[in-house]
Model the fold of this input.
Amino acid sequence: MTESYDVLLFDLGGVLVRATGNPVAADGTLPADDDFWRRWLLSPAVRDFESGRTSPEEFARAVAAEFELEVGPDEFLRRFRA
Done:
């Protein structure tokens, strides 16, 4: 079965929707400063996930390791989805 869409929107430059907060620390323990966003945007784990090359579980494990998070992959995914 093929799905049909009325609109497909790519907001690559953040023109329509601006990301705020910190996807790594939904509890506010890590600041969402310019350095954080630079690291996030250049992260191999983030790029692989956004391009569909990795599963959510693999993404969570890689981000938890890369950003040295104090939470495990399952908790990171819960916060990320929130």
Summary: The chain has four helices and no strands. Helices lie at 34-42, 44-50, 56-66, 73-81. The first helix runs from residue 34 to 42. The radius of gyration is 14 Å.
